[in-house]
Input
Amino acid sequence: MNREQREVLADLAEGNIRFSCSMADYTTFKVGGRIEALLGIEKIENLLRVVQFLRREGISWFVLGRGSNLLVMDGDVPGVAIRLKGAFDAIQEEDSRERKCMAGAGVSLGQLLEFCRRKGYGGTAFLAGIPGTVGGAAIMNAGAFGRDMSSLISGLQMVTPMGDVVERDRDTLSFSYRKLEMPEGGVVTRVWMKLEKSTTPEVAGKIREYLRRRKKTQPLEYPSAGSIFKNPPGDHAGRLLEEAGLKGERRGGAMISAKHANWIVNRGGASAQDILDLISLARRRVREKTGIELELEIKVVGQ
Output
């Protein structure tokens, strides 16, 4: 970006901007080089103007969320990372009798779970322990333990790549495994949900149970991005990786977890390239052993 572009972005973000910002501080992997600019956007009108400007100027960008499900490569990373804050970081109850609520895309899944616990609204406990945002979870159709976000969502608001605001009802949305069909470059800004009838003690108990199950099977003690690969149809990536003898494989400070083969963890001092090398090794071994080409669940940003 040139100086003029930087000045425009700073104005559009109302000063909430950092240049040459280390992404290691903002990703759950705790790795990543320096992004050209990190913007905090608090109002939808500012987001519209930012998206329109970046598109017009041909500047690459992505929404950061809580930095999970993301591998940012080492070195200088061109483009802009956007964090949705302010108006995007709130939950509103819209109909208590019908258990309907609206969550901004920047709301963490932890915030959503706490809201549901207080209100006694069920159906979200499977999200316990996932370190993402409501917007990211909607786009990825995040799920666990046989449930996913599509079972909760009744509608979405999004900003299109052209910079328009649109609202979509559930029956016009197309969800599939770990995916919501939407235009490339679109941004989810609000999510409407219809939750299940429950009680505060029941919700709290289910959250504790799901957290216990995660702790037992997942290496939560190390920085990671969660599951690396999507499950292929009719199978589990973790099983394929384990049978290929990949548990415990290391490259630099990165390791394929001995607890769960579909997790790569940062044991300390890992680089993004270390992690990418393990990803390549895992895909090659599984392909050679089974003929299956594993598909990434995480997003890779940078060269």
About this structure: The mean pLDDT is 95.
